[in-house]
Design goal:
Blueprint lengths: L3 H13 L4 E17 L2 E19 L2 E7 L4 H12 L33 H16 L5 E19 L4 E19 L2 E7 L2 E2 L11 H16 L2 E2 L3 E7 L6 H8 L4 H4 L21 E4 L20 E6 L2 E2 L6 H7 L7 E2 L8 E2 L3 E4 L6 H6 L3 E13 L5 E13 L2 E7 L2 E5 H7 E4 L4 E9 L2 E9 L2 E9 L4
Parallel strand pairs: 8-18, 9-16, 15-22
Antiparallel strand pairs: 1-2, 1-4, 2-3, 4-5, 5-6, 5-7, 9-23, 10-11, 10-15, 11-12, 13-14, 16-17, 17-18, 17-19, 19-23, 20-23, 21-22
Helix pairs in contact: 1-2, 3-4
């Protein structure tokens, strides 16, 4: 993707002009996005983005520049200008790319950009009809299709030289139900780090019906009771709450600055004994996976919390320098326009020893949170607030009637301690995460769990 001689010249410019570490991130990205409402195309985009980012360290200081002009003269001039702010004594460097990385292989067979647009639209039409035909209450269906082929080359002055091809595809389906002047939505978004063959592994019409089912169920629901009660959170995207409420506080970007509630707590008990929290970017073909992270390190399984004890943070290269800790292959970025920092990949609570049925049966009265929608969290304090898109009452150890308007309010540190039952039905779903290094693809998941005491907010009828 870029001649090694040019890379060597860039790195020589880095070192001879004052930097002690240099890195390039070259990207060639093909993306297609299509949106339909009611089966009609609302918008569409297909394009290619190509460019390079150059990062330079001087101790704990860094600078990042990027361009889509890959001429040798421009890259060298840009590098020299960047190192001016980090300049110190000049040094000589002998560079060898002798630290090759073999990416974790995520297999694919059909590149989406080789598929005709008509076939993608046909899938979207199937999804639209599947949701629309679920019931007369469904008044609108929106379908968003995305595929991406991201080819990257990562090299640095420590000898790393690696290429990675990331091929993803996903369809997001939202159904709107109306009854008595009330509107409710249901949402699903299957996706994978796979090519177009992904759609041979799933029934997209069944996913569409699921979105419609959620919307139809909730539009007839009464408003949720409020107060402090046990909350059972179902498997799958319920893990988003822990991604937000706990995961961000375990990223080195906040831990290194001492602004995380979990700073300086390695080896300490921060959760109940039944909680093991993992981040793993190497799970084959999962939405949040990569072959290597965006700093060129092979992805790996990182056990963050084990049986309640904090074992590791998610660490990128620069914050690893600040903390005196090795990178955990957690450096991520949206594109060459962003410098990487520590971010999550596929983050999940590991399976426990209970069953979902046992958890429900052992909960006399509470709330069953089947689908978490969205929320906000303060990484410094861990305080969070999440809305539910699908919820039910638990009465006498059974799931009973649906309720709407519920929010989960709490604190990340406290909720980790208050988890007292974990099921054996782990599921990881797909999502996006927005932070300082841009929007990235993430997986979030968990088995069914119970939080013994939690504040449920909302409005009562």
């Amino acid at each position: 993707m870029l001649d090694k001689n040019i890379i060597e010249d860039i790195f020589n410019a880095v070192i001879s002009n004052g930097g002690d570490f240099g890195e390039i991130f070259l990207e060639d990205n093909y993306t297609t996005e299509i949106s339909t409402i009611g089966g009609h195309i609302e918008k569409g985009m297909s394009g290619r983005d190509f460019g390079i980012g150059i990062r330079i360290f001087d101790g704990l200081n860094s600078i990042y520049v990027y361009t889509n002009d890959l001429s040798k003269d421009n890259l060298i001039k840009m590098t020299i200008k960047a190192t001016m702010v980090l300049k110190k004594s000049k040094r000589d460097m002998v560079l060898k790319f002798d630290n090759p990385t073999r990416p974790y292989i995520h297999k694919f067979s059909i590149l989406p950009r080789n598929i005709e647009l008509s076939k993608k639209l046909e899938l979207m039409k199937i999804a639209t009809q599947g949701a629309k035909n679920y019931g007369r209450e469904i008044t609108q269906v929106q379908v968003n299709y995305i595929d991406q082929e991201q080819n990257v080359l990562i090299a640095n002055t420590e000898g790393v030289y690696v290429e990675d091809k990331r091929v993803r595809t996903r369809m997001l389906i939202m159904a709107v139900a109306e009854y008595g002047g009330q509107l409710e939505t249901g949402y699903v978004g299957p996706g994978a780090l796979m090519g177009f063959e992904f759609y041979d592994t799933i029934d997209i019409e069944e996913y569409a019906r699921e979105a419609a089912r959620i919307a139809k169920t909730m539009v007839y629901a009464d408003y949720s009771p409020v107060g402090v009660m046990p909350v059972v959170i179902d498997n799958g995207f319920g893990g988003l709450m822990f991604h937000e409420a706990c995961g961000h506080s375990l990223e080195a970007s906040s831990v290194a600055k001492g602004v995380s509630v979990f700073s300086n707590k390695l080896g300490q008990k921060i959760a109940s004994d039944v909680v093991t929290l993992i981040d793993d970017g190497s799970i084959p073909n999962f939405w949040g996976s990569l072959g290597v992270d965006d700093e060129g390190k092979k992805t790996q399984k990182n056990v963050l919390i084990e049986n309640g004890v904090l074992k590791s943070y998610m660490v990128d290269k620069l914050n690893g320098r600040r903390m005196g800790i090795e990178s955990t292959a957690s450096g991520r970025r949206q594109s060459y326009r962003f410098a990487p920092t520590s971010r999550m990949t596929n983050t999940y609570i590991d399976s426990g020893n209970n069953t979902k049925e046992e958890i429900i049966a052992n909960t006399e009265k509470g709330l069953f949170a089947k689908q978490i929608n969205a929320g906000s969290v303060n990484p410094a304090t861990g305080d969070f607030n999440f809305s539910l898109s699908e919820a039910y009452l638990i009465e006498n150890g059974k799931i009973t009637k649906p309720v709407k308007g519920a929010t989960l309010i709490g604190n990340g540190s406290k909720i980790l301690m208050d988890i007292d039952m974990v099921a054996n039905n782990l599921k990881i779903d797909q999502g996006y995460c927005f932070a300082s290094s841009g929007a990235i693809f993430i997986g979030a998941g968990q088995p069914t769990i119970r939080v013994k005491s939690m504040t449920v907010g909302g409005r009562e009828a």
